[in-house]
Amino acid sequence: MAKTTFSCSACGASFSKWSGRCEGCGEWNTISEDKGLTSAGPAKKSLGAMRGKRLVLSDLATQETPPPRTLCGVAELDRVLGGGLVEASAILVGGDPGIGKSTLLLQAAAQFAHAGLKTVYVSGEEASAQVRMRAQRLGLEQAPVKLAAETNLRDILTTLEAEKPQLAIIDSIQTMWADNVDSAPGSVSQVRAAAHELTTFAKTNGISIIMVGHVTKEGQIAGPRVVEHMVDTVLYFEGERGHQFRILRAVKNRFGPADEIGVFEMTGGGLAQVVNPSALFLSERGQPSPGSVVFAGIEGTRPVLVEMQALVAPSPHSQPRRAVVGWDSSRLAMILAVLEARCGIPFAGLDVYLNVAGGMKISEPAADLAVAAALLSAREDTALPADTAIFGEISLSGALRPAPQTENRLKEAQKLGFTAAIAPSGGKTVSVPGLTLRPAADLTGFVGEYFGAG
């Protein structure tokens, strides 16, 4: 039989027997028998009659000061974090093996330590001597960063509680193990438990924690997706090993804009921030050639110009190849279908290769028109003018839809020396000095005007 409990309706205090006056708040005739928090059920599966602490509720108009932030001095990292590191925040950083996650976070730890934050770096994958060697190579051996090599989660939390740092970096979450979970380190249960304990510790102790996470073959954070829901910010460190460019992308941020990017360049002295990524992505672009088109895109709040490269060649196989690097392969199939159905331009029997130069990954639909232009340029062996940027979304009907932030795209193109831009008509009228905007009504008209077909 369940034990009967009584509680005060004024203050919520719980008692084992009824009385006329509440000992907690002193009110009279406010104690009544509890009926339980949930419906009847098994004792181990329901909350039962025990009551918890009453929450303090506030209305939507309550004014709260924004959380304090700390700038590390690296503008690209501060931009991705939403304007600096937020106190008591939990951040997850993912990326391919060897892409430079540990290098980036060691440099970030040194910068935050120089900015006045007490910083602890805990490595579960490398010995302390290896981390010190990397610090010497990067010229960071004099940074006031405390270092430890450990994988036992209980020992790490005990150390952090005693040291009381303001920032802790855990490299990586897959190597941590909690002794109360009966599974091997790196398993789903261990990753979930370690992430939960570290996030809770960050919130209750006011410590900012950055966790490194491995990625799967599909490019997602390894382990349960619930880990991404636990933390405040999820950052992906992207890049091709053959390119020196590295892109830090925010896919979730409770304290700033998502899809913001920071661009870095891998050098012999570590990662160097790139203040003007558009100029860097276009630096190796030579004379205008068929299949090469410059796309004026937006990544987060930043306009970025990148080169879209296409190659169309006769296929010796019965099933032509469709290879894509840096863009969505299913969207490429859609563009090819629209060109054939609406403009009468077939790609059957032709191999199609599409590449975003510089190792950049583009996801916004505004790249449709630039991709279509690159494909047609490669197929017709016709080069578009080198001083022209292109952007716009293509619908299945062949119509062109205006892209957001047109003015920012045009200003970035003009700043880099472009004198013309092709964009869908019907959008907001924008005038940028020194740049001519050439509107395109639909895909058929665009193809007919610039490639003499359609």
How many β-strands, per DSSP? 23
> What profile does the largest beta sheet have?
9 strands, mixed
Major sheet strand order: 8-7-9-10-6-11-12-13-14
- Name the shape in a single word: globular
Q: Note poorly predicted spans.
A: none
What oligomeric state best describes the polypeptide chains here? single chain
Percent of residues in β-strands: 25-35%
Roughly what percent helix? 25-40%
Characterise this structure.
- The protein is of the alpha/beta class and 454 residues long.
- The protein is 26% helix and 25% strand.
- The protein is built from eleven helices and 23 strands.
- It has helices at residues 75-80, 101-114, 128-138, 153-163, 188-205, 226-230, 277-281, 329-343, 368-380, 406-415, 443-451, and strands at residues 6-8, 14-15, 31-33, 69-70, 85-86, 90-95, 119-123, 145-149, 167-171, 208-214, 233-238, 245-253, 261-267, 270-273, 292-299, 302-314, 322-325, 350-356, 388-390, 393-394, 400-401, 420-424, 436-440.
- The strands form five sheets. It has a nine-stranded mixed β-sheet with strand order 8-7-9-10-6-11-12-13-14. A seven-stranded mixed β-sheet has the order 17-18-16-15-19-22-23. It has a three-stranded antiparallel β-sheet with strand order 2-1-3, with no helix packed on it.
- The protein starts with 5 loop residues before the first strand and ends with a helix.
- The relative contact order is 0.09.
- The mean pLDDT is 88.
